[in-house]
Write a structure and sequence with these properties.
The chain is α/β, with parallel strands linked by helices. It is built from 9 helices and 6 strands, in the order αββααβαβααββααα. A 6-stranded mixed sheet has the order 1-3-2-4-6-5, sandwiched between helices. The structure holds uracil (URA).
């Protein structure tokens, strides 16, 4: 199996067998979308209403905003991979609970292991907190961090505000757009092998 087939098979298993209690109320799993060959992996929070109905992440207003920002760095949705820290919609879009995040993490780590992205972009507080704990997003947005992931190894992360949070907040929106534009530079540095630790 090639990378895409391996990822598709994993995502299919995720839809059929998952320990997360959110599964009971959700319509379906929302495993992820995009290319298994992507250099950039985006990780958001959790599927919303539209995502739950269609089984595809970031297809609502936040997703449209994300696509607009991708266009500013000359990328399309098909060039990246996008998923969430939890794979099922929490009831009424509440924050995911720590046990729900824990239940979904093995699937996320398997996705990372298959894709092996050059950079993981965390969207919002929940994804950031798991990988780069103990930081305040207001202080570290737009910054890159290198962390060791169990079973995976060294990985660079880039912290962004969540597009849904920034959508209707003028100053957050401008900040997110500016931070987003830094992604190609960070990626270039990683490829040159001289990204700061
Ligand atoms: N917000 C998220 O974090 N994920 C989605 O899939 C949609 C909206």
């Amino acid at each position: 199996m090639n990378k895409q087939e391996t990822l598709d098979a994993l995502n299919e298993r995720m839809s059929l067998q998952c320990d997360c209690s959110l599964r009971i109320q959700a319509t379906q799993a929302v495993p992820g979308d995009g290319s298994a060959l992507a250099e950039i992996l985006f990780i958001g929070e959790a599927p919303g209403k539209n995502e739950d109905l269609q089984g595809i992440p970031f297809i609502g207003a936040a997703g449209k905003f994300l696509s607009e920002m991708l266009a500013t760095i000359e990328l399309k949705r098909e060039d990246i991979y996008i998923t969430n820290i939890v794979k099922y919609r929490p009831p009424n879009n509440r924050d995911p609970l720590p046990e729900e995040i824990s239940a979904c993490l093995p699937s996320l780590y398997k996705q990372i292991k298959i894709i092996r992205p050059k950079i993981i972009v965390t969207l919002g507080r929940h994804a950031m907190e798991h990988f780069i704990p103990g930081k305040k997003i207001s202080l570290v947005h737009g910054q890159a961090f290198r962390r060791a992931l169990p079973g995976i190894g060294s990985q660079v992360f880039f912290v962004l505000y969540h597009p849904a949070a920034a959508l209707y907040n003028g100053s957050l929106r401008a900040t997110l757009i500016e931070d987003f534009k830094k992604i190609p530079k960070v990626l270039e540095k990683i490829k040159e092998g001289n990204h700061e630790k």
